[in-house]
Write a structure and sequence with these properties.
two-stranded antiparallel sheet; 2 domains; about 200 residues; 13 strands; globular; five-stranded antiparallel β-sheet
Length: about 200
């Protein structure tokens, strides 16, 4: 897919952005392609790929929370104002994420809303520069899969989201179907019981 350069008028700059979302091994991901004007690039546009992984707090056992819920630290800026940043533990940062985490934030946590933790990375490092125009959705998706596989290997205790009841379970409490959705034995049993009752009515 070819990304067109931004269209401008005197008071507004409109940029094109594409987003693809999905789920792999019960971890949600978003792939984003956008960019910025750059006269040195073909077409005058510098493409930029990123992907983001999201983890739900119910998915993370208490013993692992410290690996996903990063503390903030105060980093002074040249203008004297505070800049808040996050410390990245070496084990989660050591998982691939295309060379390392470059984005992290938390969502929720107020009004009894659950917390989700979002990790991101970009494809704009120095060693990416020669390949910027070669990256495509298939390549970035392969990086997503690789990163999730590494995170699953590093943290096998992370829970899996059941297709049937939308609850989280340990891996040995269910199985994945051919479509890649996790089905817990409890959730599937409850669904089958419900369908049987409906058929008997």
């Amino acid at each position: 897919m070819k990304l067109l350069p931004s269209k401008k008028r005197d008071d507004v700059s409109v940029r094109l952005l594409f987003r693809w979302s999905g789920q792999y091994r019960s971890i949600y991901y978003d792939i984003v392609r956008h960019g910025f004007d750059d006269p040195s690039m073909p077409g005058g546009f510098h493409p930029l790929w990123c992907f983001y992984l999201t983890f739900h707090e119910e998915q993370i056992p208490a013993a692992l929370k410290g690996h996903f819920d990063f503390p903030t630290k105060n980093v002074p800026r040249p203008d004297g104002r505070a800049r808040y940043w996050y410390d990245y533990p070496p084990d989660i940062g050591g998982c691939h994420l295309h060379g390392g985490i470059t984005y992290y934030t938390k969502h929720g946590g107020i009004d009894n809303r659950p917390i989700t933790y979002e990790f991101g990375c970009d494809f704009n490092h120095l060693n990416d520069q020669p390949r910027l125009l070669d990256y495509d959705l298939d390549y970035v998706l392969s990086e997503v899969v690789r990163s999730i596989d590494e995170i699953r290997a590093a943290f096998p205790e992370l829970k899996h989201l059941c297709l049937w009841d939308a609850k989280y379970y340990n891996e040995d409490e269910g199985e994945y179907n051919k479509a890649g959705s996790f089905m817990s034995y409890v959730g599937r049993g409850a669904e089958m019981k419900k369908r049987k009752e409906l058929n008997n009515d």
